[in-house]
């Protein structure tokens, strides 16, 4: 690998390479993806070689050159040989800067494949129409579903053909699973997980049963043959003088060895994960009864002061007593309730002296006393009722600041309102989950977005303990720490676990070793890496393949991609055996050119693809890379 100076092109001419613009975590992961799995030459354009992940990128084997330029200008693009490059990835900078760089690069090389990171997905869709061969992706939108699902303690899902693919573990796996996606799952050592392990042939189970069963029943180690008759208690023992033959001994020894291996393997962690489908995506909507209870608790905060409670309870007792006096004097409940409400509002008509003297007043002395008491108590209740009404109406106005109410329960706390935090909070809100956000920077871009949804935001740079208390940690179900700093995220998670030992914590971590220790140390916890989740999708898009979504198996990623067989393309004439041969690839659905419906777990493994056919595959990062390489070599 060579490293180039400011404004200097690569020392050696290079062509058919891929250019990555950026020195952030996503650029780092993307470069790793390209050089390790796709094995293509990569040139990296960074703003400062000494900052962020640029020093680590510079040390990666397989990187052809690192070029330093302050901004992506025409001179910088020429320095990285844009005219002879095959692809360009813009994964750093603002949306406006990336759009400008993409259009400029297209002018230098019209055939260039361009992938740019865009936070505004709607704008990205419009930009794709301007690019002849490009795609706009959002790293935060790609990774957010995994964080939201981890906070709820369930696998995230990917929508394909009206069904939702998700990963189920162990006892949750059903018989209609699409395929086994992982085995040897051990939370204490996540490196042991095998993604898309080799599958046995469908006849393997029948062959095993045929080998185990003899003519008169199943053979067991030790020569014992069970009576096939139901309910029989007797067993046939071998004759003492009979000498078993060599073949029998060999079979029994093999069976005993298999049993011993199974017994030894049972002591080892062996969790399994499988890919399954759901007709609808499950929601976490809160029932109306719970919402009413939370609103009542929220209203009760007006009565938290001891003096206020004493004054209001005394006034309430006086009103009830006066109401009883009025009802006793008139024996008309409806009229008593009517006059009492008017008195509370200060709208009752008092008796005049002339009416009293003429004996035409509304009541006697005790009635007038009761009405005066109710009216005076109404003066006490009116300000409290007004405050409650203003609070309820103001909290419903979009965009207005709102603190978590006293009735906030069973919510998810999102720490950090950058791109990822905003996406996670929005997705949880769309699922019907109560959310409270925490942010130390009052200028963070996500504050306005979540406030517009009515999501409470706790602002301030004080200690996490105080901030979490304001966010009502004691009553929360999970905390998601997604700031851009691993140490800050870990601090928030540990402080949350200290304040509420039962809370689930989900932490954004870049370092894999750090994440491994995190999993091994904390229970009811998960970690995700935004760059790790997003990089495979960017790499596949750079190669011209569409990744519909990603499913996470702890810190590992399973890609769901949709491929179309086109005239002259490498998919024409291939069958399931050919596609799955590279390893790490499973064909989970097929849609023929003459049908609009996907056929899940397509049984015919020998049917060859024709023009217009579509397939949906589940693949590991390396498996999809090998498949792309195979198809590219046959194009």
What can be said about this structure in brief?
This protein has 635 residues and is an alpha/beta fold.
User: What is the average per-residue confidence, as pLDDT, rounded to a whole number?
Assistant: 78
- From the alpha carbons, calculate the radius of gyration and give it in angstroms: 35 Å
- Estimate percent helicity: 40-55%
As for the CATH topology of the largest domain, it is Rossmann fold
Q: How is this structure best described in words?
A:
The chain is of the alpha/beta class and 635 residues long. It has 4 domains: 2-137, 3-Layer(aba) Sandwich (Rossmann fold), CATH 3.40.50; 288-395, no CATH class; 412-528, 3-Layer(aba) Sandwich (Rossmann fold), CATH 3.40.50.720; 542-634, Alpha-Beta Plaits (2-Layer Sandwich). Helices cover 41% and strands 19% of the residues. The chain contains 21 helices and 27 strands. The strands form 6 sheets. Strands 1-4-3-2-5-6-7 form a 7-stranded parallel β-sheet, with helices on both faces. A 6-stranded parallel β-sheet has the order 19-18-17-20-21-22, with helices on both faces. Strands 8-9-16-10-11 form a 5-stranded antiparallel β-sheet. Helix 1 (25-38) crosses helix 21 (621-634) and helix 10 packs across helix 13. The radius of gyration is 35 Å and the shape is elongated. The two termini are 30 Å apart. The model is unreliable at 1-7, 201-209, 218-269 and 396-401 (pLDDT under 50).
Ordered list of secondary-structure elements with their pairings:
Elements: E1 2-3, E2 18-21, H1 25-38, E3 42-46, H2 54-58, E4 63-68, H3 74-79, E5 87-90, H4 95-108, E6 113-117, H5 121-130, E7 134-137, H6 139-151, E8 157-160, E9 163-169, E10 179-185, E11 194-195, H7 204-212, E12 213-214, E13 217-218, E14 225-226, E15 235-236, H8 246-265, E16 271-278, H9 288-299, H10 306-330, H11 333-344, H12 353-358, H13 365-395, E17 412-415, H14 419-430, E18 435-439, H15 446-452, E19 457-459, H16 464-470, E20 478-481, H17 486-499, E21 504-508, H18 512-521, E22 525-528, H19 530-542, E23 546-553, E24 556-564, H20 576-580, E25 585-591, E26 599-600, E27 614-619, H21 621-634
Parallel strand pairs: 1-4, 2-3, 2-5, 3-4, 5-6, 6-7, 17-18, 17-20, 18-19, 20-21, 21-22
Antiparallel strand pairs: 8-9, 9-16, 10-11, 10-16, 12-13, 14-15, 23-24, 24-27, 25-26, 25-27
Helix pairs in contact: 1-19, 1-21, 6-14, 6-19, 10-11, 10-13, 11-13, 14-15, 16-17
